[in-house]
C-alpha cells in the first residue's frame, strides 16, 4: 500500500535530510486515527503539486508527529487541464460528485446554479455548501494520494459559465440528445477542456443556446442516462484516458 498523504500549509524551505512537524487536525488524524508509529512512511503535501516523502521520526501526544524528510517530489502541471462545471445536485450528492471526480483526476470543479436545479445556493447556505465541497475535495485528494488537489471555484451564473466555455480550447455540454459521442470528439493535446454537467432536470433550451453561442456543443456520454452526480466522473475518466493523461 502507498504511504498515506497529509496536508500541510507550506513546504517552502523543506529539504531532504531535514524534519517537518505535523500537528493540528492533520496531526491528530495521523496520530489518533491512523495511529502512525515511528518508522512508518508518510507523504506531506501542500496540495499545490509538491510532496515531501519521509518516515515518522517521533510521535508526541495525540496530535503531533515529526517526519524525517527523505525526498521531495513535484508534479508537473497536467496537460490538457480538465474543468467540470457541475450543476448543483440534491442533498449530499454534490459532495459525492466532488469526491469521485477528485479521485478520478479532475483539475477544477465549478458549482453552477442551473435553471432546473432543485437545489439553489443562497446566503449562508451557499457559504456552507461551498465549504463542504472544498473540504470534500481536500479529503478526497489525500485519500487518492494526489499532490495537486482540484480547485473548487466560487459558484458561477450561466452567463459566467458561458464565458468560461468561450475561453476553453475544447468545450462540451453533456446532453442525452447530443448527436456526437464524447468518445469520438476531437480533443486538444494542450490547453484547457471544460465540460458542463447539467442538473437532473436537464439543461434548459436557453442555457444550451447560450453555451452553443460560446462554442460548446452538446455531446452524449453513452447509451444510458447517468445522474448528474455520476456523469462528471464518468466523463472525466473518458477524457483523461483519451488525452493520454492516464497512459
Automatic annotation (TrEMBL):
InterPro entries: Alpha/beta_knot_MTases (IPR029028), PUA-like_sf (IPR015947), RsmE (IPR006700), RsmE_MTase_dom (IPR046886), RsmE_PUA-like (IPR046887), tRNA_m1G_MTases_N (IPR029026). It is found in: Cytoplasm. Its main location: cytoplasm. Its EC number is 2.1.1.193. Residues 22-68 form the Ribosomal RNA small subunit methyltransferase E PUA-like domain. GO terms for molecular function: methyltransferase activity. It comes from the Bacteria. It holds the Pfam family PUA_4. Keywords: Cytoplasm, Methyltransferase, rRNA processing, S-adenosyl-L-methionine, Transferase. The keyword RNA-binding does not apply. It catalyses: uridine(1498) in 16S rRNA + S-adenosyl-L-methionine = N(3)-methyluridine(1498) in 16S rRNA + S-adenosyl-L-homocysteine + H(+). GO terms for biological process: methylation. Gene3D superfamilies: 3.40.1280.10, Hypothetical PUA domain-like, domain 1. Coiled coil: none annotated. Residues 77-239 form the Ribosomal RNA small subunit methyltransferase E methyltransferase domain. NCBIfam families: PRK11713.2-3, RsmE family RNA methyltransferase. Belongs to the RNA methyltransferase RsmE family. Specifically methylates the N3 position of the uracil ring of uridine 1498 (m3U1498) in 16S rRNA. Acts on the fully assembled 30S ribosomal subunit. This is Ribosomal RNA small subunit methyltransferase E. It comes from Streptomyces yunnanensis.
Amino acid at each position: 500500500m502507498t504511504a498515506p498523504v497529509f496536508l500541510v500549509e507550506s513546504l517552502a524551505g523543506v529539504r531532504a535530510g531535514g524534519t517537518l512537524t505535523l500537528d493540528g487536525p492533520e496531526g491528530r488524524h495521523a496520530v489518533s486515527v491512523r495511529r502512525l508509529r515511528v518508522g512508518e512512511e508518510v507523504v506531506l503535501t501542500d496540495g499545490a503539486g509538491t510532496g515531501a516523502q519521509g518516515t515518522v521520526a517521533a510521535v508526541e501526544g495525540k496530535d503531533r508527529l515529526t517526519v524525517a524528510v527523505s525526498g521531495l517530489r513535484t508534479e508537473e502541471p497536467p496537460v490538457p487541464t480538465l474543468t467540470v462545471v457541475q450543476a448543483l445536485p440534491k442533498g449530499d450528492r454534490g459532495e459525492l460528485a466532488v469526491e469521485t471526480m477528485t479521485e478520478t483526476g479532475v483539475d477544477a470543479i465549478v458549482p453552477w446554479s442551473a435553471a432546473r436545479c432543485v437545489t439553489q445556493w443562497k446566503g449562508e447556505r451557499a457559504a456552507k455548501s461551498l465549504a463542504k465541497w472544498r473540504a470534500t475535495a481536500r479529503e478526497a485528494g489525500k485519500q487518492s494520494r494526489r499532490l495537486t488537489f482540484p480547485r473548487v471555484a466560487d459558484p458561477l451564473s450561466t452567463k459566467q459559465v458561458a464565458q468560461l466555455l468561450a475561453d476553453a480550447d475544447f468545450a462540451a455540454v453533456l446532453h442525452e440528445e447530443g448527436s456526437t459521442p464524447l468518445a469520438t470528439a476531437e480533443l486538444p493535446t494542450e490547453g484547457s477542456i471544460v465540460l458542463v454537467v447539467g442538473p437532473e432536470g436537464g439543461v434548459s433550451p436557453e442555457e444550451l443556446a447560450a453555451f452553443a453561442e460560446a462554442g460548446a456543443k452538446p455531446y452524449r456520454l453513452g447509451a444510458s442516462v447517468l445522474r448528474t452526480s455520476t456523469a462528471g466522473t464518468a466523463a472525466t475518466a473518458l477524457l483523461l484516458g483519451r488525452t493520454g493523461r492516464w497512459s
